Amino acid sequence: MALIPLKQTATIIRQGEKDDWGNGSEPVELTLKCRAEETTATVQNQLGEESVSDVSFLFDKLPDIRYDDEISYTNELGVTVKRTPIKIKPIRMPNGKATLTQVYV
């Protein structure tokens, strides 16, 4: 159970892995509960460069989200945001366990 209510859902789209011939398999989609906050923020990406984020997601625990995945989210007004993560930041408790993961897109 998460520390905060997770009322929204986001779809994680991961491209299929390529075989020896270079043919890719079907993309894998995973739908997770989250909390989406549509605010503009300046964050540092994994290379240390500054980027502008429009949406930040809070996921329960530590889901398998990678920088080459695509996150799709549709808000209450029907506007769909579909982008790759800029920054993935686990939030840990004092005992070291990840309780939430914040993802900026």
- Low-confidence segments, given as residue ranges, are none
Helix content: under 10%
Order of helices and strands: EEEEEEEEE
- CA-based shape: globular
Largest β-sheet summary: 7 strands, antiparallel
* Cα-based radius of gyration, to the nearest Å: 15 Å
- Count of helical segments? 0
Task: Give the strand order of the largest sheet, numbering strands 1, 2, ... along the chain.
Answer: 7-6-1-2-5-9-8
Average pLDDT, to the nearest integer? 91
User: What structural class results from the helix and strand content?
Assistant: mainly beta
Distance between the termini: 24 Å
Give the amount of beta strand, in percent. Answer: over 45%
Q: How many strands appear in the DSSP assignment? A: 9
Keywords:
105 residues, mainly beta, 0% helix
Quick description:
This protein is mainly β and 105 residues long.
Descriptive report:
The protein contains no helices and 9 strands. The mean pLDDT is 91. It has 105 residues and is mainly beta. It has a 7-stranded antiparallel beta sheet, with no helix packed on it. A two-stranded antiparallel sheet has the order 3-4. It has strands at 8-14, 28-37, 41-44, 50-53, 56-60, 70-74, 80-83, 87-92, 98-104.
